[in-house]
From TrEMBL:
<feature type="binding site">
    <location>
        <position position="133"/>
    </location>
    <ligand>
        <name>(S)-2,3,4,5-tetrahydrodipicolinate</name>
    </ligand>
</feature>
<feature type="binding site">
    <location>
        <begin position="76"/>
        <end position="78"/>
    </location>
    <ligand>
        <name>NAD(+)</name>
    </ligand>
</feature>
<feature type="domain" description="Dihydrodipicolinate reductase C-terminal">
    <location>
        <begin position="109"/>
        <end position="240"/>
    </location>
</feature>
<comment type="function">
    <text>Catalyzes the conversion of 4-hydroxy-tetrahydrodipicolinate (HTPA) to tetrahydrodipicolinate.</text>
</comment>
<dbReference type="InterPro" id="IPR000846">
    <property type="entry name" value="DapB_N"/>
</dbReference>
<dbReference type="InterPro" id="IPR023940">
    <property type="entry name" value="DHDPR_bac"/>
</dbReference>
<feature type="active site" description="Proton donor/acceptor">
    <location>
        <position position="132"/>
    </location>
</feature>
<feature type="binding site">
    <location>
        <begin position="102"/>
        <end position="105"/>
    </location>
    <ligand>
        <name>NAD(+)</name>
    </ligand>
</feature>
<feature type="binding site">
    <location>
        <begin position="142"/>
        <end position="143"/>
    </location>
    <ligand>
        <name>(S)-2,3,4,5-tetrahydrodipicolinate</name>
    </ligand>
</feature>
<keyword id="KW-0560">Oxidoreductase</keyword>
<dbReference type="Pfam" id="PF05173">
    <property type="entry name" value="DapB_C"/>
</dbReference>
<feature type="domain" description="Dihydrodipicolinate reductase N-terminal">
    <location>
        <begin position="2"/>
        <end position="105"/>
    </location>
</feature>
<comment type="similarity">
    <text>Belongs to the DapB family.</text>
</comment>
<dbReference type="GO" id="GO:0050661">
    <property type="term" value="F:NADP binding"/>
</dbReference>
<dbReference type="GO" id="GO:0019877">
    <property type="term" value="P:diaminopimelate biosynthetic process"/>
</dbReference>
<feature type="active site" description="Proton donor">
    <location>
        <position position="136"/>
    </location>
</feature>
<keyword id="KW-0220">Diaminopimelate biosynthesis</keyword>
Length: 243
């Protein structure tokens, strides 16, 4: 049995993780902590893994506390910077524990990025359409930016064919590393992305649809099972998917 604690347990993601952990035959939910609770050996109640879905402003401190209290960490909270990655690596080293930080726990999204990277060298054209609910405050999504980066690396600087000479309103989308990215905000949607690849006479479309928070749970559970076997800091769920 893997003993799991959840920090941010009263939040939308945290509550969903608590439920998912409770349903696993090889896991035991030993602590639900939220704002105002101290994170220490006693409150973590022997947790081998602590899952963190808090808020960007506190995540460095909550994850550090869990590591220092002797627990590996699986982190979904966003807002990490290269400096924070460096600092948390040192905390993990000092504690002798591992931390896995994944900007996206949805298996379909992670696989889409990997497939896009694989396809990129073989197509002339590549464009991304990301589609989200209208309450999302940033555009484009972090996943779209990461996907554009993966495609760009695969294309080795090859420009996307495009004869557009006039586009005063930016109808051709934003360009990330030369890859056009189009953001749709539509009532009724959750989190979706299409990657379009084109060659003369053929098209490849990759599509991921995350309909609700459940979509993240298989990825979070996988991370809980794998984090003990990693070393120090690992960024991205793909690292534990054997890709
Ligand atoms: P939320 O606001 O519903 O929940 C956050 C919870 O953290 C709240 O219950 C809050 O009380 C708690 N919290 C705040 N400060 C705390 C502290 N010091 N100690 C303990 N708990 C504290 O937010 P959410 O929708 O559940 O999202 C949480 C985070 O997860 C966000 O950063 C979000 O962007 C991210 N997220 C990541 C993924 C992924 O796949 N990586 C998926 C969805 C959301």
């Amino acid at each position: 049995m893997i003993k799991v604690a959840v920090v941010g347990a009263s939040g939308r993601m945290g509550a969903t993780v608590c439920e998912a952990v409770s349903q696993q035959e090889d896991m035991e939910l030993v602590a639900r902590l939220d704002s105002g609770d101290s994170i220490d050996e006693q409150s973590l109640a022997g947790a081998e893994v602590t899952v963190d879905f808090t808020v960007p402003a506190v995540a460095f401190d909550t994850v550090s506390a869990a590591l220092r209290a002797g627990s590996h960490s699986v982190v979904g909270t966003t807002g990490w910077t290269p400096e924070k990655y460096e600092q948390i690596t040192r905390v993990a080293e000092q504690a002798g524990k591992n931390v896995l930080i994944a900007p996206n726990f949805a298996l379909s999204a992670v696989l889409t990025m990997k497939f896009a990277e694989l396809a990129a060298p073989y197509f002339d054209s590549a464009e991304i359409i990301e589609m989200h609910h209208p309450n999302k405050v940033d555009a484009p999504s972090g996943t779209a930016i990461a996907t554009a980066g993966a495609i760009s690396a695969g294309r080795a600087g090859k420009p996307v064919p495009d004869a557009t000479e006039s586009d005063p309103e930016g109808a051709r989308g934003a360009k990330y590393e030369g890859v056009p990215v189009h953001a749709v905000r539509l009532r009724g949607l959750n989190a979706h992305q299409e990657v379009l690849f084109g060659n003369p006479g053929e098209q490849l479309v990759l599509r991921t649809d995350c309909f609700d928070r459940e979509s993240f749970m298989p990825g979070v559970m996988l991370a809980c099972r794998k984090v003990g076997g990693l070393a120090g800091l690992t960024i991205g769920l793909d690292k534990v998917m054997g890709l």
